[in-house]
Amino acid sequence: MLAKILKLKDVQQLNKNQQKMISGGYIPSLEEFCCGPRSQGWWIERYPFLANDPYYTCTSDVCGSNW
Predict the structure, then answer these.
(1) What is the DSSP string of the chain?
(2) Of 10, 11, 14, 16, which residue is least crowded by CB atoms under 10 Å?
């Protein structure tokens, strides 16, 4: 699998798990992304692929009454 990843030309082509494997980064849960304590902008700045991921769509039912 790593050989396939290394053959890719653009990091944007990697899925979340592949990026995490390469960078050793931490990918937030939906609740962490939407509800804090860090802002959505903070997460997107560090993990730009989250901005295009439909999973990371914040709605009122994600955070409950705190949103």
Answers:
(1) -HHHHHH-S-GGGS-HHHHHHHH---PPPHHHHHH-SS-HHHHHHH-GGGGG-TT----HHHHGGG-
(2) 10
**Count of C-beta atoms within a 10 Å radius of residue 22:** 14
CA separation, residue 17 to residues 24, 26, 45, 59, 64 (Å): 10, 10, 18, 24, 28
Q: What is the pLDDT of residue 9?
A: 61
Single-letter amino acid code for the residue at 50: L
57 residue type, one letter: T
Peptide bond between residue 37 and the one before it cis (omega within 30 degrees of 0): yes
The span from the CA of 61 to the CA of 67, in Å, is 8
Residue predicted with more confidence, 64 or 42: 42
